[in-house]
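Journal club prep — side note

Before the paper discussion, L.F. wants everyone to see what a predicted structure for a comparable chain looks like in token form. Sequence:
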Amino acid sequence: MPDHEDSKPESFMEKITEKIHGHKDDSSSSSDSDDDSKISAIKSKVFRLFGREKPVHNVFGGGKPADVLLWKDKKVSGGLLGGVTLIWFLFEVLEYHFLTLVCHSIILTLAIFFLWSNASTFINKSPPKIPHVVIPEKPLMQIVSALRIEINRGFAVIRDIASGKDLKKFLSVIAGLWFVSIIGSCYNFLTLIYIIFVVLFSVPVIYDKYEDKIDPLAEKAWIEIKKQYAVLDKKVLSKIPRSMKEIKDKKKA
């Protein structure tokens, strides 16, 4: 009997302690969820370059192209960059001509396979398996179709600019093309393509690694650019009429 009476207060106290601990656990879990929501809200307010809301990997479309640009697959990325560097070195440094390089490569390949096929009968080894290369129709047509859509879109943009509807857009495009022509006069086309390729394989991976340090600096630069643009817009751009029709209307007035 006394043992039974002692077990009652003990079980009662155990229930009280369990309720207290359960309440603490619930409050701690709710506080943790509140902290997580606050952290996510703060992260969403952080300035990101180009106003992106997704990780850098998703910005580049994800999949294999993003893996290559961000050096997730180091063998493929290094192989592509090394191959492009070799091509640039042959054409620009050694001054190799494209047609000469193609012909010499085909001659070397044909000679290797021809000699290997004939020598295999004397050394009792199997001849080389020359791959049967066939260009599939469906992917080729998809590429051509996508290229056609982009070309037509470019023609539509050029037509819209040349129609004289927006003078600001016309002047901005002329200024952009003039800037590109200045860069083109400093470098030849192949060197310019190689520089773009190197930038694509270096800048994204650096930004992906140090984005928390780069974004604050980019935010300061973007604020300063907006200030300077506001001054330029107030003093110059706002005074430029949008079209020739607007100029005629002002003259009539």
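L.F.'s comment for the group: The two ends are 110 Å apart (CA to CA). Keep this in mind when we get to the figures.
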